[in-house]
Design a protein that fits this description.
17 helices; three-stranded antiparallel β-sheet; globular; about 400 residues
Amino acid sequence: MGTERNYRSATPSTGTQPPGDQHDVLASPVRWLLDRLTAVGELVTVRPVSLYAAAVLRIGYGLLYLTFLLREFPHREEIWGPESPWTPALAQQLFAQTGWTSILTLSDSHVYFELCYALAVVTSVLFMLGWRTRALSCLFAVVVTSFHARAIFMTDGGDNLVLLMALYLALTACGRRWSLDARRIRRRAARHDIPGPAEPGQTWRQLRAGRATLVTVVHNCGMFVIAAQVCFLYGSAGLYKVQGASWGAGTALHYVLNLQLFQPWPALSHFVDEHTVVIAIAGYLTVLLQVAFPFVLFGRLKYPVLVMLLAMHIGIALLMGLPLFSGAMIVADAAFLPDRFYAALPSSLRRAVLRSGPRQRASSRTTLETGSVPPQGRSEDPDGKRRCPLPDHHGDATTLRTGPER
């Protein structure tokens, strides 16, 4: 007994642990890593993420490109048509070197060009509305790529971003929310006439499950690539600005505001340029927001950052005359808002309308009561008689004359 007691008392002092405890300590990090990998695998393969955000991207870029095509409609011949200084033959020579392609260079006919332009407009409308989104998303990507490649020397940052997003959206299930496709599916479900065999076999069920998993994986990867693209864009832009001496000195925006090529309203640019302290603060804040953007996406700090980026892009659109670029960036930033935010928007708007309704009725009632025109019509009395309000010509009050009900 004494020997056993001495052995037990000596065991803690040696710092050794039983073999089972050592195995548990070593296995806990491995188990944690396996749990994390399992969670990531389920996130990628089981549930499609950011369906509302994908719908916002579809609507935003469809509307943005439709506006772009309609705005350039009077100048379409000079930019993309056969009368353009950059002729289809020159474009074909460039395509042989760069690997680009465009449906606009297949023919030099004016009729063919007008048909392609009409196709682009119709495709943008249907893509924005979410009609047959799987096919229209691919056609929208072909249209954007063709128009971008046809006049590649007349593009800017906004065109490049729209092109990238059109290609990425072709991989996503961007028609499952806020679309005509989603409306059609809801109606079919309400009528209980969803097409498909009544009793599918084992092979059919496996094929459907495999197809659903494949669609989910491709959609999630597409949304992750979109998020990574925006993060890379902001991060690289911020790091390039850090290397510039004018951004470090706080004078970069001063030079930007004095560029005549980017002055849609010179008076407004000169007015903003007079506030030197505000200009310097805005320059430093721009660099800080762009560099910090990829690091604030997993916390609540991203919401004020997104609001400040929204204000920055609105300022770029107004002061520099780049609405397409600003609109493309604003739509891209919408991809980082969670689905619960978009799902709560209809109910929030409905509650706002309901709150404003009683105020309007109360204000209209107050106007009638305090106005000089007496209330019109007849009112029922609980005793079965009608009260007819008649004006009293001897005073400001209104007398009520009671008579039998007719």
